[in-house]
Amino acid sequence: MLINHFLKVSGNTSSTYGKAFTTFIFPNIDENMTDTSGNSYYNTSTGELTLPYSGVYFCSGTMRSKDAIQSGAAPAGTQWGVGIHTSNQDGSHFLWTNVNPTNNAYDRSTYAYSKVIRYNANDKVRTILYIDDNTARPMSGGEMVVYRLSD
């Protein structure tokens, strides 16, 4: 039995991302989707949320790229994308943007994402990233929120 219909994970990692659709593993569980025994449906090793019930879910998230002037950041104009989905692939669930040009370390390139979607029980939902650069690059971090709205 589900006790909490809400999950929020967030944070920064030292991982790098490149030309592959890759799951972003959030290090912080801010609000956990758990059963009555306190078991989490979010896997901190894989970054996947296993949905306990079929239903309509609201998913949102943000991802912040390192700005072009920061060490290790992708060059200005580099395309990158973010999505929340059940598989690591491109599609209508995936949104593309680019690294903003900047001349100081205080500019931010944050991309917000949200959707309402029907999922099935045991679907594994995750935040996925792709950075269209031949060099693997770090991201500054972000968050993922998943909330069950109805059956």
Task: Please outline what is shown here.
The protein is an all-beta fold and 151 residues long. It has strands at 6-11, 16-17, 22-23, 28-31, 42-43, 48-50, 55-65, 79-85, 94-98, 109-119, 124-131, 137-150. The chain has one domain (6-150): Jelly Rolls (Sandwich).
CATH architecture label name = Sandwich
Number of strands: 12
Q: Helix content range of the residues, please?
A: under 10%
Summed over residues and divided by their number, the pLDDT gives a mean of: 87
Strand content: over 45%
The low-confidence runs, each spanning 5 or more residues with pLDDT under 50, are none
Q: Could you give the order of the helices and strands?
A: EEEEEEEEEEEE
Shape: elongated
Class computed from helices, strands and strand pairing: mainly beta
CATH topology-level fold name: Jelly Rolls
- CATH top level class name: Mainly Beta
Count of helices? 0
Largest sheet: 6 strands, antiparallel
Distance linking N and C termini:
14 Å
Rg calculated over all Cα atoms: 16 Å
Description of the structure:
The protein is mostly beta strands and 151 residues long. It has one domain (6-150): Jelly Rolls (Sandwich), CATH 2.60.120. The chain contains no helices and 12 strands. The strands form 2 sheets. Strands 1, 2, 4, 7, 10 and 12 form a 6-stranded antiparallel sheet that branches. Strand 8 (79-85) and strand 9 (94-98) form a beta hairpin. The protein is elongated and about 50 Å long. The chain starts with 5 loop residues before the first strand and ends with a strand.
